[in-house]
Amino acid sequence: MSTAAFSLHPQLAQDTYNVTDLPLCRVLLMNEVRYPWCILVPRRVGIREIHELASAERQQLWEESDAVSRVLMVLFQPDKLNIAALGNMVPQLHLHHIARFQTDAAWPAPVWGKFLPESYSADSAASRCEVLRRLLQ
Question: What is the pTM of this model?
Fold first, then answer.
């Protein structure tokens, strides 16, 4: 599949900061300061589900998910790392990686819809993205 016409879903673009592009996926930082939260978006047009990716792309997605997971575990040492491919609001395939702590505001419930998001300041978002980018290279 061609990546020429790839564009990020408007909701993801509105809710995140761009961290970097890996071989398959764009890595995003969710604009929610309470939870270290990255999102992987395969740069493929029209893909809604993991099984729609070619076999090699599915393997690459898992490799990139593993890399993001390891970075989040080292940086934040969470009690649990939640990984989910939900697409109820945003149909474009995307994979959430959320570092969770027993002390976080939503624990043990899901983070979705629990509270209004607490946004990063521009400086803290830039700093967090730079650290993530450096560790993912």
Answer: 0.94
